[in-house]
Amino acid sequence: MYTVNAIRFLILGLLFSSQTIVFAQQPSDPVEWVNPLMGTDSKPSLSNGNTYPAIGLPWGMNYWTPQTGAMGNGWQYQYSADKIRGFKQTHQPSPWMNDYGQFAIMPVTRSLKFRQDDRASWFSHKAEIVKPYYYNVYLADADVTTELTTTERAAQFQFTYPKSDSSFLVIDAFDKGSYVKIIPSQNKIIGYSTRYSRGPLSAFRNYFVIYLDKAFSFSSGWRDSTLLKDSLEVTANHSGAIIGFKTSKGEKINVKVASSFISFEQAELNLQREVGKETFATTKQKAKARWNETLGRLMIEGGTEEQTKTFYSCLYRMVQFPQRLYESDKNGNVIHYSPYNGKVEKGYLFGGTGFWDTFRALYPFLNLVYPEVNKEMQQGLVNDYKEGGWLPEWSSPGYADIMIGNNSASVVADAYIKGLRGYDIESLYKAMLHGANNEGPVSAVGRKGVEYYNTLGYVPYDVKIIENAARTLEYAYDDFTIYQLAKALKRPQAEIDLYAKRCQNYRNVFDAQTKLMRGRNKDGSFQSPFNPFKWGDAFTEGNSWHYSWSVFHDIAGLKKLMGGDKAFVAMLDSVFAMPPVFDESYYRSVIHEIREMQVMNMGQYAHGNQPIQHMIYLYNYAGQPWKTQYWAREAMNHLYKPTPDGYCGDEDNGQTSAWYVFSALGFYPVCPATDQYVLGAPLFKKITVSLPGHKKFVISAPANSDVNRYVQDLKLNGKSYDKNWVSHFDLIRGGVLQFTMSNKPNQQRGTTKNAYPYSFSK
Questions:
Q1: How far are the Cα atoms of 55, 142, 184, 522 from residue 108, in angstroms, in the given order?
Q2: Quick one: pLDDT band at residue 25, thresholds 50, 70, 90?
C-alpha cells in the first residue's frame, strides 16, 4: 500500500502533468546546458550543494573560481555574496576539506589596494557569465571586466580596463608561507604557495608563473599588510605582488598563468605546452570542445529544459574529481609530486576525493562511461600505496583524517570486476589486505578498531571508538569486495573463505528487537538506551534508520533478519512515512545534514547525505520494483534543480550528482564490486551512451513522462527482460534497453525471486 505521503505526491504529480511543459531538444552543445552555479547558494548551517563555480577541464589539475569569501575560508564562493576578492586557483574538494596550494589574481584601479578587503569589488550575477570553460564578470568598483578560460594546468585571463593612469594587478600567494618575485624585464611574476588545510604534506609547494602582454610601469612586493617599496622579491608568511600601468578605455590586458607542484621550470613547461602562443579565444574554444567531448558521452532526448540542465550540471560535477596531480617532464614522462614523501616520483597520481562518498556511484560511473580515466586513477592508487604505505580513504591530496570505512577496497575491486586491466592489480590487492588488517597512521586510514573487528566480528560501542556500528557495517561490505577480488585473482581458498566469513559481520550489530542496526558493547550486550533517531554516536552523519540499509552485498540476508519480504518492505515504507524527527544530542547542535533531512518533506529519507542514497532501490530485492520507480522519480523531481539552491545537501565530489545521473539512466549500482545495476526507471525518452570502442548503448522510453513513470515491460536488445537488474557487461557490449512506460504500476513484473538482484546469501 502507498503511504499518505506517496498518495499526496501522486496527486501533485497529476496536477502538474496538466500544465504545459517545454521539452528540450537533443543538445548538440551539452556544455551550454550546464549551470556551474548549481549548489552555490550554501552556508555552513544549510547546504544546497556547497559547490563553487569551477572553471577548468574535466579532471584538471587546477580549477579557477571567483573568491567571495575571506582568504582561507572554505566557502570560497557563495551565491549570496556581494563582492569578489580575487580570482583563485583552487584544488578544493569541498568547503569542509578546504583548499591547498591556492593563489589569487585581482585587478584594481584608481589607487594601490592589495589587502583583500580593500581590493574587493562589488559585482552582480546579472553581469556575470559562468560556463565550465569560461567566466566573465564586471567588477564595479574597479570598472574592469574579467574574463577567464583554462587548460588542465594553465589559464588565460583577459582584463578590460578603463582609462586610468592607476591601473593595477594584484597577485596574492596567500599566507602560511609563500614567495613572489617580479621580473619587469620579462613582464613576469613567479611565486609559490605552501598553504594547505589537510596534512601533513612533505615539502609542499605550488609553483606559479604569470606573464602579461603589457610592460609594468610600477612594481612592488608586499608582505602581510605592508607594501614594500623598491622590493621585487618577497619571502614571508604572506607574500604578494602588485604591478601597475597606464590604460586606455577598453584596453585589454592578457595574462597567462600556469602552475606546478614540482618546480618553476615545470610550471614554465606546463604553460608553454598547454597555452604557448595561443590567443584567449583559441584556448576558450579548445576548452569548450573538451567539455563537449566529455559530457557528450551521454546524449539525452525528450526531457524538460529543467531536467536537461540538471542532468548536465550534475555530470559536470561528476567529472571534476579526483583531480590530476601528475605532470609531464621535458621528455614526456609522466611524473608527480608525492604528498607522502615530498619527492618527485614517476607515474600517475590523483587527489581530492573521499571514498566514503564516492565509492557508491561516482567510481562505478567512471567504470561504465570513462574507464580509460579510471585506469589512470587505479595506477595512481598503486603509487599512493608504494609511496605512502596505504591506500587513501580521503585524499586531499595526502591522507586526510576524516570520515570512516576502508572503502578504497570497493574502488579497487569494482574497477577490476568491471573489466579494467593494464595496471598493477597485485600491488593493489596487497594494499587492500594491508588496509583491512591494520590501523593506519591516522584514524581514517586502514581500519580503526580492527583488532576488535577481527576478533569479535564488530567494533564495540563502549571502547571509545566513535561511529562503531557504522564502521562495522562498512568494514563488512569492504570485506565482501576483498572476497570478490580474491576470487577473481584466484587467491588461496582459505583467504577467500576468510573474507566471505567477515562480510557477514553486519549481522553482529543487528538488533532483532528493533529490527535495526544498533551499537553493541564489548560484552555482547547492545547499547542502552537506544534511540533509532539519534544522529552520530554509533553512526556516521546519520541515524540507525539511515545506516540499517548499509548491507549492499547481502540484502537477502538483511531481509531475513528483518522478517522476510513483507516486513522488509514495511520497513522501507516507514522511512518515508515517519516524520523527520531527530535527536541531535551527540553533536550538541543541529548539524546541517539533520536540517537538510528535516526540510525536504520526505520523512526520514536523508538524501542530502550518502548512507541512505541506495535505499530507494532496495524494493527490487523484495518484489515491489514499482515503488523504486515511484520514489526515484520523486527524489529526482523534488531534490534536484539546476539552480544555486539545486541540491538537497552537500554535493560531495560527484557522488550526489552521480545518484541523479544513474537514476536518470534508469538504474543504480547498489553493490559495487558486482557487475549488476539495480533497475529503476529512466527520466528521459532516450539516452545514448557512447562507450569505448565506438560502441553505443541506447536507453529508450518513448512514452516516458512525469505521469508515465512506471515500467510496464522491458526489452534488452529486442528480447523480453524480466530481471530487476541489468549487467554491466550487457551494457558495455552496446545495444538497446527499451522501457515500455505507463501511468500505472505493473505489479506482476519483477515480483519473483529469480528477478531479484545479487545477494551474497542468495
A1: 22, 5, 19, 63
A2: low
CA angle 387, 438, 337 (to 5 degrees): 15
C-alpha pair distances (Å), 128 with each of 68, 124, 138, 320: 14, 7, 7, 22
Phi then psi dihedrals of residue 395, to 5 deg:
-95, 120
Give me the number of domains the chain comprises: 2
Tell whether 438 is covered by a domain: yes
Q: Is residue 27 part of a domain?
A: no
pLDDT bucket at 12, cuts 50 / 70 / 90 = very low
Amino acid identity, position 21: I
The mean pLDDT of 259-279, rounded to a whole number, is 98
Contact between 62 and 102 under an 8 Å Cβ cutoff? The reply is no
Dihedral sign for Cα atoms in the order 545, 550, 552, 557: negative
**All 3 cell numbers of residue 380?**
595512481
Q: Does the pLDDT at position 161 exceed 60?
A: yes
Q: Domain limits at 473?
A: 297-755
- Angle, helix 408-417 to helix 425-436, in steps of 10 degrees: 150
In this prediction the pTM is: 0.96
Q: Based on the domain organization, do 602 and 701 belong to the same domain?
A: yes
Radius of gyration of the chain (CA): 26
**Domain boundary at 246, 261, 295, which?**
295
Distance CA 284, CA 262 (A): 26
**Sign of the CA dihedral 568, 573, 578, 582?**
positive
Residue 14 lies in a domain: no
- Of 88, 119, 121, 123, the closest CA to residue 105 belongs to 88
Burial class, 386, CB count within 10 angstroms (exposed 0-12 / middle 13-18 / buried 19+)? middle
Across 405-564, the runs of DSSP E, i.e. the strands, are 510-511, 516-517
Is 740 strand, coil or helix? strand
Residue percentage of the chain with pLDDT more than 90: 95
Average pLDDT (104-122) is 97
CATH of the domain at 172: 2.70.98.10
Whether residue 243 is found in the same domain as residue 329: no
Retrieve residue 477's grid coordinates: 561490505
In angstroms, rounded to a whole number, what is the distance separating the alpha carbons of residues 480 and 476? 6
Integer angstrom CA distances of residue 217 from 75, 185, 234, 291: 35, 11, 19, 39
pLDDT for res 20: 40
